[in-house]
C-alpha cells in the first residue's frame, strides 16, 4: 500500500474526519502535509522525500495556524472571567451589607460568596453589578442608576 501512495490519501482523509469531530484545525494542517506528500509521490519522489515533504508542510502549516487568530485560544481563556457568554452571572446585581477594605461576603443565588470591589468604586452604593468572576470571588462595581429612575 505504501508503494502506491494510497497511504497518504487515506491518512489525509482520516485526519480530516477526525478534525471535523474535534474542530481545532491542527489535524487539518497535518492532513495538508499528507496531501503534499501524496503529490510528491505522484511527482516521483522517493519515500524519504515524501516523509520530509509531509513533515515540512505540516510543521509550516501548524506554525502559520499558531500565528493566526484561529490559533490564539489562550487569550480567549484569559478573558473568560469577564465574558458574559461564558459566565452568566456577569451583569447580575446583588447587595452587599458591609465592606471591609474593599472585600466582603454576601449571599448570592442561595450561596455565600466572596465579593471584591473593583478599584475606584464606592462602598456606599445600594446595588452592585458583577463584572468578573475570579475563582469563587465576584468582582463588582457600583450599579449606575438608569436616567429618570
TrEMBL record:
Parts of the chain that traverse the membrane: 7-40, 46-65
Superkingdom: Bacteria
Keywords: Membrane, Transmembrane, Transmembrane helix
Protein name per the record: NfeD family protein
